[in-house]
Known about the structure:
The chain contains 6 helices and no strands. By secondary structure, it is mostly helical.
Amino acid sequence: MSQEHTVKAFDEEITKLRGLIAEMGGLAEVSLAEAMEALVKGNLELADSVIARDKKIDSLEAEVDRLAVRIIALRAPMADDLREVIAALKIAGVVERIGDYSKNIAKSANKIEQRKKFEPLTLVPAMADVARGMVHDVLTAYAARDPHLAKAVVERDEMVDAFYESLFRNLVSHMMENPATISSAAQLLFVARNIERIGDHATNVAEMVYYAATGEYLTDREDKTGA
């Protein structure tokens, strides 16, 4: 009976851990979408909402950390179970960073001048849509323990990188031809870089999901998350 109770308690803790990750991911996904809307429309109220939400994401990460440490200390999970707990711990940290990047984008909402005439601004949402789709799909892969969907997310990272390179060239050319827009263009480069990092982090989560589900590493892909 005691053994049955222990197994049930462990299952409940793992379910809670997954739920916290899902909640974090959902908030991070919403933050990215709203940060981009705030940037494009100059909606400072929405930008402030994104910035404020980051505290909730941070508190959820701390809760994941506490629960994961408790599970490891009290349950001493092995093999598949241990992989799942460690993956959740790492994923929470990465999702928290995605929230930070979204917050950074929101902070740029009031730094774009002559918004309606600044043509490069129309190019960024498509890049953000790809990154947001990666975040959504990798969270779905985590919830379903789906290694195939996780692998598909990894493969889409090249699309985000190509967007970034194209946008970088476009913005540099725009700055050279229109010196008055240098400040706004530099700000948009910062935004594009944050979106590119979100794609990298979604890819890293996908690799963790793949490992948690299969016990195998996807690739020896170079770690691109940086600091």
